[in-house]
Write a structure and sequence with these properties.
- This protein has about 575 residues and is α+β, with helices and mostly antiparallel strands.
- It has two domains: about 400 residues, no CATH class; about 110 residues.
- It contains 19 helices and 14 strands.
- The strands form three sheets. The chain has a seven-stranded antiparallel beta sheet with strand order 8-9-10-11-12-13-14, with no helix packed on it. A five-stranded antiparallel beta sheet has the order 3-4-5-6-7. The protein has a two-stranded antiparallel ribbon with strand order 1-2.
- A hairpin with an 8-residue loop joins strand 12 and strand 13.
- Helix 4 packs antiparallel against helix 6 and helix 16 packs across helix 17.
Length: about 575
């Protein structure tokens, strides 16, 4: 019996302490070079995601077998929780079946590798953890395991912050490339020196991880009796806070601040409910106007960029600059090397030529900074550039049909050009490190996916990655948008709005349960500390979801912690009844 009790914690140990540390180079063919908006090469070099995905799925399969074998006996999960999980899984699977690219949806797509098999694994992980964390002793084991993993991760992060990144050493590069056939000397860090990314794909996820784990470390300080473990937990929490600073993740920092506020408010409320209520209402009254102000400043009605649209056709090139529409034509192969520009209803405009640059002769401020220049592409095709400030767009009709094409950053000539969606809610493009542009283009997609999403890891096909001008304006030139940088938008578009509702409903159940327990607390016991810590960590993760996506780097840990939160609440409720 003792052996069986120990055995049941091993899969959770793998999720908390093994999977996050998996870093191994994998070279695959993502198959995206067939699209004009992608590079001519389909080769993907992945370090952080694919093998983490494998680890998660393997651990979930083992958990599933163990659940069927014996762990399900005597375990009961609330019907509302099971229904939420079931609906989420069903909609995720349906979205994968009807996805634009089912292969990506089932086996993982470019730069994401969070397919439906990984999403189903999260559900299994949650159910398994829910069945395992059935006592205070089990919760303490969970805290010890989680802190142990966080301690090692924090050391890696702090070393990176100090400029001593293990993965830039020969030993680190050798370990990453082991048995891959790739020379370790070819591997180099893509982040600047002193930037914390841990083993988690990019600095943003390092911030999410730190914000998620700091409250768990706080629980280790107060809920575990061993003095040495208390010290390790405290040191780990401090190192993780430094990692948030080193990662430069604003979201992680805001989540950490929110967690600190939650701890303070809850503690005051428990020991002085009147003062707690006053502080709670004060914070609420301060936050609501601030949110309205932020939202009002975030929503815009027109672009701040001079060049707003571009289109090509057989007859010429159409651009819009500061609300003015222009139609441009040009000869090729010396037939008529000049440029002719028409305004509005095909009214020709006067051009002034100087040193090969053509400018519009007009006092209209809309044309400020705009000029045209004839030239030859790297492939030897004659055409012209439309230049405004730092933006330069090359077009050519140097072909047998005389049709106009745009040469994109990948050197591909295309007529498939997207433009920003008109109307509807639009955020300031530069909001949240230019996430506002991505959110503005993602929100209109939601209405298409009320029931069935576009498929896990299929966001890349749904987003207008052919909107080259917007990508250039917002600093994404040469990049492909693979995710919406918002966990809620990601879920709504990829697995459907109803799947998002299912997840949010699950969180609402947890939130209400936690608030009822906190409201009835008269003092903070060891289990109470775990309850509050997990509540703060889960809240921090949900805040991080506003500007970060679900990822195999951090999501598995969240689902374990989320399940532990439900279990902790159940244990406290049983203690109240007994």
């Amino acid at each position: 019996m003792a052996g069986k009790n120990t055995l049941k914690y091993i899969p959770l140990f793998v999720i908390l302490c093994v999977v996050p540390f998996i870093v191994r180079i994998t070279v695959t063919d993502c198959g995206l070079s067939v699209y004009d908006w992608f590079s001519k090469s389909s080769t993907e070099y992945d370090f952080f995601l694919i093998y983490k995905m494998y680890g998660i799925i393997i651990a979930a399969v083992i958990m599933f077998v163990m659940l069927i074998a014996y762990l399900h006996k005597g375990k009961r999960i609330s019907g509302a929780i099971l229904i939420s999980l079931l609906l989420y899984t069903v909609f995720a699977v349906l979205s994968a079946v009807f996805a634009h690219n089912p292969k990506d949806a089932f086996f993982g797509g470019y730069a994401q590798h969070e397919p439906v098999t990984a999403l189903a694994a999260y559900v299994i992980i949650f159910i398994y953890a829910y069945c395992v964390f059935d006592s205070k002793k089990a919760l303490v084991i969970f805290i010890k395991t989680a802190v142990a993993g966080a301690f090692v991760m924090a050391i890696l992060g702090v070393l990176q912050w100090l400029g001593a990144d293990f993965f830039t050493t020969y030993a680190g590069r050798w370990l990453i490339s082991l048995s891959s056939g790739i020379d370790p000397s070819r591997i180099s860090a893509s982040f600047g020196k002193g930037v914390v990314y841990m083993t988690l794909y990019n600095p943003n996820y390092a911030g999410v991880y730190s914000a998620l784990m700091i409250p768990i470390c706080a629980a280790g300080v107060y809920a575990v009796k061993n003095i040495w473990f208390k010290a390790v937990s405290a040191v780990t929490a401090v190192m993780l806070a430094l990692c948030i600073i080193g990662s430069g993740s604003e979201t992680g920092l805001y989540a950490f601040i929110a967690e600190c506020v939650i701890f303070i408010l809850v503690r005051i409320y428990i020991y002085n409910k009147m003062a707690g209520r006053i502080l709670l209402y004060t914070v609420f009254l301060a936050v609501i106007p601030a949110l309205f102000y932020i939202c009002e400043k975030s929503i815009v009605h027109k672009s701040i960029y001079p060049l707003e649209r571009m289109e090509v056709s057989k007859d010429g090139v159409d651009i819009r600059i500061r609300g003015k529409n222009l139609h441009i034509i040009s000869g090729a192969k010396s037939q008529n090397a000049g440029i002719t520009v028409y305004e509005g209803d095909m009214e020709p405009v006067k051009l002034s030529e100087s040193e090969g640059a053509y400018t519009i002769v007009s006092s209209d401020a809309a044309y400020e900074g705009l000029y045209f220049r004839t030239g030859v592409s790297e492939e030897g095709l004659e055409g012209f550039n439309v230049i405004c400030n730092d933006v330069s767009l090359f077009f050519t009709n140097d072909n047998e049909e005389g049709r106009y094409y745009y040469r994109n950053v990948y050197g591909k000539y295309t007529e498939d050009i997207g433009n920003p969606a008109n109307g509807g809610l639009r955020f300031a493009d530069g909001l949240a490190s230019h996430r506002g542009y991505i959110w503005s283009e993602t929100i209109p997609l939601i209405m298409k996916h009320i029931f069935i999403g576009c498929g896990p890891d299929n966001f890349i096909y749904e987003f207008p990655n052919n909107d080259y001008l917007s990508l250039i304006n917002n600093g994404y030139s040469g990049s492909v948008v693979t995710r919406p940088h918002n966990m809620y938008l990601q879920t709504a578009v990829q697995t459907g709005v109803l799947s998002l509702v299912s997840v949010i409903f699950l969180y609402v159940i947890y939130f209400i349960s936690s608030m009822r327990i906190i409201r009835n607390m008269s003092k903070i016991s060891e289990t109470g500390v775990i309850c509050i810590s997990i509540f703060a960590g889960v809240a921090g993760y949900m805040i991080c979801g506003l500007s970060n996506d679900s990822s195999v780097c951090t999501a598995p840990l969240f689902w374990v912690i989320f399940a532990a939160g439900f279990c902790c609440n159940n244990i406290i409720k049983k203690g109240e009844k007994s």
